[in-house]
Prior knowledge:
Blueprint: H1 23-27, H2 32-42, E1 50-56, E2 62-67, H3 78-96, H4 111-132, H5 136-155, E3 211-212, E4 218-219, E5 222-229, H6 249-274, E6 280-286, E7 292-298, H7 304-313, E8 315-318, E9 335-337, E10 342-344, H8 355-364, E11 372-385, H9 390-399, H10 407-410, H11 416-429, E12 477-479, H12 488-503, E13 520-524, H13 535-562, H14 570-573
Antiparallel strand pairs: 1-2, 1-13, 3-4, 5-7, 5-11, 6-7, 6-12, 8-11, 9-10
Helix pairs in contact: 4-5, 6-7, 6-11
Protein name: Replication initiation protein
Amino acid sequence: MTVAPLPGLVTRPAGNTPRPGSRAARMLLPRSVEVLRDLANEYGVCTRPVSMRRTDLATGQTEVIDLPCGATREDKCQPCARRNRKLRQAQIREGWHRPDEPLPGPQPATPEQRELVLRRAHLEFERDHASRTVDEVQVAVLDEAIREVEEQLTVEGLRGRVAPPHPSADEDGLPVVDEQGGRRKRSTRRRQDAPDLPRRKVEQRTVGKVYTAPDGTEYQPSMWLTLTLDSYGPVAGDGTPLNPDRYDYARAAWDAVHFPRLLDRFWQNLRRCVGWNVQYAGCVEPQRRLAPHAHFAIRGTIPREVLRTVAAATYHQVWWPVPRVQRYTRNRPPLWDDEAGAWVDPETRVPLTTWADALDEVDSDPDAEPAHVIRFGAQVDARGVMPGTEDAERTIRYITKYITKHVGDVHAADTDRRKAHLDRLWQQLQLTPCTDRCANWLIYGIQPKGAHGKLRPGRCKGKVHQHATLGIGGRRVLISRNWSGKTLSDHKTDTREWVRALLGVTDGLDQVDPGTEARHAWDMARPTDGDVPPLAHRLLRSISERARWRSQLLAAKDRAAQGSGPGSLTDQAA
């Protein structure tokens, strides 16, 4: 039997549709703040801009200008992170398949520069004579004259130093020797467990080899390379260890901290092996098992067997004191003694071993072994890539896939096993020393280099100890110096100039020629200042401005497409 509705009530439609005007219906309405944020992300407007006050020095007029924050992580600012990722893609694209050398040789010195260097040589001759005759007054006068000449050489545009500075002298006229500043030298003899590599003189050539087909067509391919670390124990398909108790988390933590140095040694060995200045651009990211690996774009081609041989023969030794026993904990740390100026044992008040003494013990032991040796794993992937193909663009997108994310966010800990694996690695990283100045050395009874009372034993502030980095604290993007011949700022300027040329804009905001006075003065504008509008007002204004720019840019690109074409930077400005 169907019950009749009460008089005056409207029957609601079947389903979960809330009653119009109810709180549930209001909660389904989109939020204006989220719509504003989505529009800002769509039009590339920075969601946390830095407000700067610009003052015209001629008229005294001031205006508040929002500058992008420049964040490289999406969790901080998605538009700025995406802009940085596109800029890195443009940098890799421009340098990967270059047919010519990116950097020309230095220009010849001018007569004024040669004259200054000759004057510097005369002063060096006179100083040597005064030093041998123990004429301290004349030596001081000549040192001042040498300093003035060095400054003039810098003003004239000469790069670098002509000669290193002279050491200062003590009261007896003897040179002062810095007891802690000397770099310790160790034997460069290769390890017996590493294969030898051929060593050739490295040519100043960065361009790859050109191949000619039987029909006369020329090809200049390049390569894509992936380098990984060794295994620390058997893992399952999701990257978690099958037996966590036997998984070598200590070695995994040390390898993650020193992985960038291993990559530097690889490129050094590779250049010496092939005999030319190999250029690379890549990114470091964690594998599913959370061990770091690196993807690289290489200009030119190298035999795969050579790459595997160099990877197998590359290693990096960490000559530090071996942190064997953890003598202190975070709850029972050593104490700082202001009178002694050192960290001491909390019970005996005996100072801990200094960093210099700990290294002296390592140097005095003829059978000493490095604290850690890091090597690559057996997996080395390499393949050729032809320029101008979809494979090249797809590879560039793959290399820069995760540069806008934190290392800990690349592979989400969506299961209990993966979360436990991540936590165990992070706990080990918190106890692993990252540098010679790391506060973690204190829990092993060693004072780090440059120890002071503000250190917190076992709580180093280095990025490698953070949960979001998992040992990869910095140097995630690795690009060689002669890759494109430009810095990231240069590529940003190229994009801006291309857009301005496409739109026909010729005037700049604050372009000042060298040697002329600045037209504007800049200072920081705080959100509480009276002339700074609310953030929502500034975002709305920036979104409108960006929308107008996009319309003008698309119209200019259509006009250019009907003529000679928009150019080579379309992907950067899109």
